[in-house]
Design a protein that fits this description.
The complex is a heterodimer of chains A (350) and B (131). Chain A is 35% helix and 24% strand. Chain A has 13 helices and 14 strands. Chain A has helices at residues 18-25, 29-36, 50-65, 89-97, 114-128, 202-221, 239-248, 252-256, 261-264, 271-280, 309-314, 321-326, 334-340, and strands at residues 3-10, 14-17, 40-43, 72-78, 104-108, 133-141, 156-164, 170-182, 185-186, 195-196, 230-233, 288-292, 297-307, 330-331. In chain A, the strands form three sheets. A nine-stranded mixed β-sheet of chain A has the order 5-4-6-7-1-8-13-12-11, sandwiched between helices. In chain A, strands 3-2-14 form a three-stranded mixed β-sheet. Chain A is globular. By secondary structure, chain B is mostly beta strands. Chain B has a single domain, classed as Beta Barrel (OB fold (Dihydrolipoamide Acetyltransferase, E2P)). In chain B, the strands form two sheets. In chain B, strands 6-5-4-7-8 form a five-stranded antiparallel β-sheet. A three-stranded antiparallel β-sheet of chain B has the order 2-1-3. The chains are: A alpha/beta (350), B mainly beta (131). The interface between A and B is medium-sized, with 24 and 21 residues. Bound molecules: zinc ion (ZN). The site of zinc ion has 8 residues of chain B, from loops. Residues 21, 23-24, 26, 35, 37-38, 40 of chain B line the site of zinc ion.
Chain lengths: 350, 131
Amino acid sequence: MVGIVGYGADLPRNRVRVEEIAETWGTDAPAYKRGLGLEEKSVPSPDQDTVTMSVEAARRAIRRAGIDPQEIGALYVGSESHPYAVKPSGTIVAEAIGATPECHTADYEFACKAGSEGMFVASQLVASGAVKYAMAVGADTSQGAPADALEYSAAAGAAAFIFGKENILAELEETYAFMTDTPDFWRREHMFYPKHGGRFTGEPAYFKHLCGCTEGILKKANARPEDFKFVVFHQPNAKFPQRAAKMMGFSKEQIEQGLLVPKLGNTYSGSSPMGLSAVLDVAKEGDRILMVSYGSGAGSDGFIFTATKKLEEVQDKEVHTRFLLDYNKRYLTYGQYLNYRGKIIMNLAD
Amino acid sequence: MDPQKYWRQIPARYRLEAYKCKNCGKVFFPKRLICDNCKSREFVKAEHSDKGKLLTYTVIRTGPADFQDQTPYVIGVVESENGARLTAQIADVEPENVAIGMKLRMAFRKINKTGDAGVIMYGYKAVPEFE
Ligand SMILES: [Zn+2]
């Protein structure tokens, strides 16, 4: 039996409101809020990046697991905003949590599903017996081009999961992957901002793969929508996962707890993993959880977990994800936001 | 800072590795050669507590070149739960809200970077403890 033995999340304190961005560009804020279901998004401080948030989330996961980090035999960081173009994020994270040197590491990239890719590989390495514990982190500090629709949602956050065979918090019941070659969103080398295919990002991209993966894993596990207490879908905005849930027969109650996007934004590789962390914060023994990621390019990874008694014992050992969402918040002006994200050239004081 | 010097400091910067005097038990951070309490030269590796409180602080308004983009920022002396003291930047709190005695926890942050092409230097900063 394999499952999650530790988990944790992290996100920055800064927020920028949809109104703040809309005012700058003279767009209709209420229309964006209605259309995307977004209120505000997280913004990293200048001293935060994918690596720092990964380390914080990883440390919380280790403390919840109560394991010796030296026993983590594999560590994968999935992100589309690795701080270096060449040099792994994983080595820094592994060194910071004390998992080196007997540890295999790699950085994954697959738009918004790089985090769940790591979860897929980490869980299977533990299942095969190759390593005792394996950690997967999904983290991003995503950038949308100024005035682009993505600027309203591209946010920052991280979630980390440790897989193991003992003292399981959430047993992994089933996994499933679904992908095709679909150019709905991309960023070429040396380009600062990504490009996307506009309306193409909906039906043939998000819905086809997310729904295909959900239907596939339900069939594989011989399960029905009503068998789950919690369902977490990738959340580039609030509308897409809500619509997908309705299309496939899931209720509002099932997706509510894991739907962080209205107040968090789209944390890309951190998106569905952070939603899962918020679900693990409150799930009770026996609750079944379905998580389906989506990454442009395009594909989805699906997971079915069942919460154990042990989960209830460790939930309050560390801060809950929804607590972080409301804690020590600071609202930025559009100018501060541009400066924090390095979108403008500032003159330094003498 | 050159990458080699940064690399040598990684255990202290990333994991707050402290050293405890084998003879009298005093904890040092970073590592020392001789205990200033009992003159012993034998130390064992000790975990530095990641929780502490603020002893004193100053607000930096004109910083060194590498830190100028962060001004104003706060530098403080933090006493950890196991008695060791260290100097750290106090982040995630506005300078006017910093107070002596405030509870802090150590967080992993970017300290500075060597221009746009150099090594990114990570390490610890103290941030307000969760309430
Ligand atoms: Zn001594």
